[in-house]
Design brief:
One of its GO terms (molecular function) is hydrolase activity. By secondary structure, the chain is an alpha/beta fold. It has 8 helices and 6 strands; from the N terminus they run βααβαβαααβααββ. The chain has a 6-stranded mixed sheet. Helix 6 crosses helix 7 and helix 7 packs across helix 8. It starts with 28 loop residues before the first strand and ends in a 7-residue tail after the last strand.
């Protein structure tokens, strides 16, 4: 059965990003990227409990190409838009995504942002329902399916998290970003649930607004969402941007 990620000994608690003032502040930008296509995204069910561990699920070949395309997208940004720090989920599929993107930046001769693994950026943990398709949950566990349908954001599967739980830990990441006076442009590499809850928090969405975003479609693999800071708040620039991605 999939397990929650253990605390990274180098980043346990609330990791310090930086408290040193920036020499040239410039624009404050926040990017959020979903990892490239994983084996689970491609419909490949885990063959063993070890393979079902969320921490070790890997990218598919398409996911690797998507990650490289993400790197080329980043390499084409102007210096005033290029991220200065990357905050990454501890899950392998997210780490792989940034490693492959970073290789493209290096090949293009672009200055590499520093990277911090933040243990709070892992995907929503669904407990005993991890990796079970919704259609199968409805058939095998009708009472659990009904409970989640009745309260989509507040429901906790047995041993798992609600979306509100995810929002609470993502809020801690945003607090740390706000306290970081050095890095003005931040890129988060994480998961669709994290990006959904970033929208909730940054755009002050209530439950109805959050569900409306989800109904329109969650962020796709290796897509980019961006916000700009304005008067101490954030304005959405674009959501689920995929123009840089390969079709196959």
């Amino acid at each position: 059965m999939s397990t929650q990620p253990p605390a990274d000994p180098e980043t346990s608690g609330a990791p310090e990003y930086s408290a040193t003032p920036h020499d040239n502040p410039g624009p404050r930008l926040l990017y959020a990227v979903r990892h490239g296509q994983s084996t689970i995204n491609a419909g490949i069910r885990p063959a063993s409990p070890a393979e079902a561990d969320d921490m070790v699920i890997e990218l598919t070949d398409l996911g690797k190409r998507q990650a490289a395309a993400l790197g080329r997208w980043a390499a084409a940004l102007s210096p005033e838009q290029l991220p200065e720090i990357v905050l990454c989920s501890p899950y392998r599929r997210a780490v792989q995504t940034w490693q492959l993107a970073e290789a493209e930046l290096r090949a293009a001769g672009v200055a590499l942002p520093c990277r911090v693994t933040d243990p709070r950026l892992y995907d929503r943990f669904r407990g005993t329902l991890a990796h079970i398709p919704v259609s199968e949950v409805r058939e095998r566990y009708p009472e659990l399916y009904a409970a989640e349908q009745a309260d989509p954001l507040g429901y906790r599967p047995p041993g798992g998290e609600s979306f509100h739980d995810v929002a609470a830990r993502v809020a801690g990441v945003l607090d740390r970003i706000a306290a970081d006076t050095r890095h003005r442009r931040v890129l988060i590499v994480a998961h669709d649930a994290v990006i959904l809850l970033l929208r909730r928090l940054l755009e002050h969405l209530d439950d109805a607004g959050t569900l409306a975003v989800a109904a329109q479609g969650l962020a796709g693999n290796a897509s980019v969402t961006a916000w700009a800071e304005e008067a101490g708040d954030y304005r959405l620039l674009y959501y689920d941007h995929r123009a840089h991605l390969p079709r196959t």
